[in-house]
Write a structure and sequence with these properties.
The protein is an alpha+beta fold. The protein contains six helices and 17 strands. The protein is globular.
Length: 350
């Protein structure tokens, strides 16, 4: 958790009506010595504190989110990304408006129309022929539009206002470490003593914890997400060779371990064969973006990374696109393979 800092936006006067130490105008956190809309402290309690003493206080404001309960599973909607394709009629309307320069993208690259926000993708050669859920088949150079929607997260654990969540969809894809960054024979990152499958020093961790995190959450949303200590212990992997998996890292967003999904939270699907999870479907926007998803009966599914090691130090552990996990050879892949990302966060909900 970062410490509070004074607002650096050009607000003439900060507004903090809900007293959560976050400026209602610009969204920046406010330091304790910012006296806008705050009450003065008790002089007696401060008489022993020197004038130049600064007390650092960490405040994580309560998140604004939507909750849904389906059966015995709790879901929270938080953060947003383009996901489902708009219907064909709206796609035609938006395409005409864009092609005639009647609407322009905002700073995030999204189009606003009729109180909705939409992302646009131009059909590329790598996705030609893929079918979207609205019935359209992607053609080269055609425009396709997608709803910017709240992300759906499954509640894994909830205690004292801290809620651990795992995303219900594949919302990113990346390699664990890029080709050429590690020695296949030694299993170490080139130029370092670090094992190549050590999540703590991986390109995957950087992408998830920084790039993807900042992409899906607004500044205000990011402030309600706790830092989480992520353990990498021997035995977290489904495979015997777990060298390098001893570090503890602090993350805003991270991918789960084998032990967490298989044992601690037991996400296996009871009606399926042993050692299988529910297959995770890839949304329309991600399909049109070129995610390496597999088509199954008109839907697209993708394998996704775990942060634990595979069968060798140059291999990582994944959940197969069909939900298979464990020591099957399909669940151990080269670190430079491109796999999906189903991340976790710890959110302040109370």
């Amino acid at each position: 958790m970062g410490s509070l800092v004074a607002c650096n936006k050009e607000c003439k006067e900060h507004v903090d009506d809900d007293a959560n130490n976050v400026c209602d105008v610009c969204g920046e956190t406010l330091s304790n010595n910012d006296n806008t809309n705050t009450e003065e402290g008790d002089n007696e309690s401060n008489e022993n504190v020197e004038d130049d003493t600064q007390i650092e206080v960490v405040v994580v404001p309560k998140a604004e989110y939507e909750r849904e309960i389906v059966g015995d599973v709790n879901y929270i909607y938080y953060g947003s990304l383009p996901q489902s394709a708009v219907d064909i009629e709206l796609n035609n309307v938006l395409k005409n408006l864009v092609q005639t320069d009647q609407i322009e993208p905002n700073e995030e690259g999204y189009y606003t129309y009729a109180n909705g926000e939409y992302a646009c993708i131009v059909g590329g050669e790598n996705v030609v022929g893929k079918r979207l859920s609205n019935g359209l088949t992607i053609a080269k150079d055609e425009l396709y539009f997608f709803n910017v929607e709240k992300l759906k997260w499954r509640v894994l654990e909830e205690k004292d206002g801290r809620t651990l969540l795992i995303c219900e969809n594949i919302i990113g894809e990346h390699h664990f470490n890029p080709t050429g960054s590690f020695s296949s024979s030694l299993g170490t990152l080139i130029g370092t003593p670090n094992n190549a499958n050590d999540y703590a020093v991986s390109a995957l961790r950087t992408y998830v914890n920084e790039t993807l995190f900042n992409e899906i959450f607004s500044l205000r949303e990011r402030q309600s997400i706790y830092d989480t200590q992520v353990l990498l212990r021997p035995g977290e992997s489904a495979f015997v060779k777990t060298q390098g998996m001893y570090a503890t890292t602090v993350n805003k967003m991270f991918v789960p371990s084998y032990w967490e999904i298989n044992d601690k939270y037991d996400l296996k699907a009871p009606e399926l064969a042993e050692q299988k999870l529910y297959a995770i479907e890839v949304k329309d926007y991600q399909v049109a973006s070129g995610f390496s998803a597999k088509a199954v009966a008109g839907h697209y599914y993708q394998s996704w990374w775990l942060r634990t090691s595979g069968s060798h130090m140059n291999m990582g552990n994944i959940v197969q696109f069909d939900g298979l996990l464990g020591t099957d050879s399909k669940c151990s892949v080269n670190l430079d393979a491109t796999m999906g990302i189903r991340p976790c966060i710890t959110l302040r909900t109370a």
